[in-house]
Design goal:
122 residues; alpha+beta; 2 domains; three-stranded antiparallel β-sheet; 22% strand; extended
Length: 122
């Protein structure tokens, strides 16, 4: 029973979250999914002298996805990360405040638990 209440609690929390978390706009989402959106590509592979890591910036999404797929097929690690546009200090502060506000709301969630079975039987 407690597990069911926990699952319901999680579902309620998810339903209450905004569609675009962390202030993400549709424009930001569209920019990051365009084939030529700039990405940072991370590659990790083994050589005779030990593991090597390569970080390449400004790689278009379509190329980064192709490289990642081929590296993974070869048994190496590869991943790509969105390159966010450079922000002014005031924009960074605004984003930090939004993230902190969202985090504090998440901490204020009240945990509901079921009453013990022995208490409800009497």
């Amino acid at each position: 029973m407690e597990r069911l209440l926990s699952i319901k609690s999680i579902l309620r929390r998810w339903a209450a979250q905004p569609l675009h978390p962390d202030g993400e706009t549709e424009e930001d989402f569209r920019r990051r999914t365009e084939p030529n959106a700039p990405m940072t590509l991370l590659l990790r592979f083994m050589t005779e002298s030990g593991p090597r890591t390569v970080v390449a910036t400004g790689i278009p999404l379509r190329i980064a996805a192709d490289i990642e797929r081929e590296m993974m097929r070869a048994g190496h690690f590869a991943d790509y990360i969105d390159e966010f546009p450079r922000l002014t200090m005031s924009e960074r502060v605004k984003r930090l405040k939004v993230e902190r506000a969202a985090a504090s709301k998440a901490r204020n969630v009240i945990k509901l638990t079921a009453a013990p079975a022995s208490a409800s039987a009497s």
